[in-house]
Structures are given as structure tokens and as C-alpha cells.
Amino acid sequence: MNRSMCPGQDTRYWRPDDIFNVPCASCGTSIEFFKDDASRRCPKCSARIQNPRLTMGCAQWCEHARECLGYDPKAAAEGADDQSVADRIILAIRRKFGEGSPALEQAVKAHDRARHQLKTGGANPGIVIPAVLMLEFTDGRGEADAADGDRELTGIKSILKDAGVAATALDEVCGIIASYRAGNVIDSPEFRAVKNSYLS
After folding, report:
1. Alpha carbon of 172 to those of 54, 131, 160: distances in Å?
2. At what angle do helices 102-117 and 125-138 cross, to 10 degrees?
3. Tell me: the pLDDT tens digits for 29-40?
4. Residue 59 and residue 47: Cα distance in Å, rounded?
5. Rounded CA separation 194/134 (Å)
6. 6, 56, 113, 199: least CB-packed within 10 angstroms?
7. Tens of pLDDT, residues 68-87
8. pLDDT of residue 191
9. What's the 3-state SS for the chain?
10. Rounded Cα–Cα distance for residues 164 and 93 (Å)
11. What span, in angstroms and rounded, lies between the C-alpha atoms of 38 and 199?
12. Cβ contact 91:105 at 8 Å
């Protein structure tokens, strides 16, 4: 759709404060946002940051919003809480392993794969995103030993709680992680999305 056809989204009609900078919640880098950007990825640390001042205007009800903006504004608003949880988990990974670490790079890639998987299948992002990130957080770094599996799951729950994951979701997230590692299969859209995200 031609932006000139929609005054609400045409930047010629915007006020100066409709384009603004937001500091990255992970590394502090300044990120430029337009008022209708749902989120942007930090150019320094690759964390995806939600727009704290998202303004949809007519896109809240317009049937052509997806074509005009390139995304569904209603879906973007519904996913805001899940996105902030992901950012906090990624921040925990950054603090533990350091900037530029393989663990951080893998976590960011896993998060992107999980979001792609969530476009189909009807899985709950509040379960899938934390499970995928925590698999990347622990696998391949000497922390997935079965001998201390219970202690590790306790540590995972602590990180998830700090990140804001709902208490009702903690057991399901940990159950998916444990089942995936044991080679077991759970017949749920969440498990399938985690498996596909992690293997893709």
C-alpha cells in the first residue's frame, strides 16, 4: 500500500516526537524508533527491543493495517509481554556468559527461530520462548549432566521467575526442557514448536 494513501502512517504528517530514540534494555545502545515500529533489534547486541511508545493510530482498526505496516498491530500488542520476558532471559544469558559469547549468539538465533515457529501451530509463546531460550542457555556448556538435573531445573526456574514468566507456566516450561533432553515426546503444540525451533 502506498503510504501517501494513509495520512495516519505517512511520515509527512508526523510530529517531530513521532521519531525518537530508546536505550537498549540489554546494553544501553540508543535505538531509533518510529512511532509505529512494534520492535527493533539492537545493532550492537542483537536484542529485540519492544517500542515503549507504540502508537497505532488508525491501524488499530484499519483492515489494511498489515499491508500498510508490514505486520499485524494487534498481534504485536498481544506479544509485548512475551517479548519483554525474552529480553530479560537474554539479558541473564549476557550477564552469565558475556557480550559476544557463543551462548548469547545461540540464544538470539534460537529466539528468532522460535518466533518463526509461533506463526503457525497455535502454540503458547509464553511457554515456547522461555523453553527455547533456556535450552540454549544450558546445552553444550557442561550444565546438562543428568546427575544434577534436578538442581539445574531449580536454577532454570529461578531465572524464569526473575524474567517474569508466569508461575503457572514454570512447570510446563521445565517439563518440556526435561522431556526434550531425555528424548521423550510430549503431544502438545508447545513441545513441537520448541523441538522445531531448537533443531532448525
Report:
1. 31, 9, 12
2. 150
3. 888 888 777 788
4. 26
5. 11
6. 199
7. 555 555 555 555 555 578 88
8. 92
9. CCHHHCCCCCHHHCCHHHEEEEECCCCCCEEEEECCCCEEECCCCCCEEECCCCCCHHHHCCCCHHHHHCCCHHHHHHCHHHHHHHHHHHHHHHHHHCCCCHHHHHHHHHHHHHHHHCCCCCCCHHHHHHHHHHHHHHCCCCCCCHHHHHHHHHHHHHHHHHHCCCHHHHHHHHHHHHHHHHCCCCCCHHHHHHHHHHHC
10. 15
11. 28
12. no
Give the cell for residue 3. Answer: 503510504
Q: The C-alpha cell of 15 is what?
A: 510530529
Copy the grid coordinates of residue 87.
529480553
Please give the grid coordinates belonging to residue 65. 493495517
Cell of 27: 546494553
Show the low-confidence residues of the chain (pLDDT under 50). Answer: 1-5, 140-147
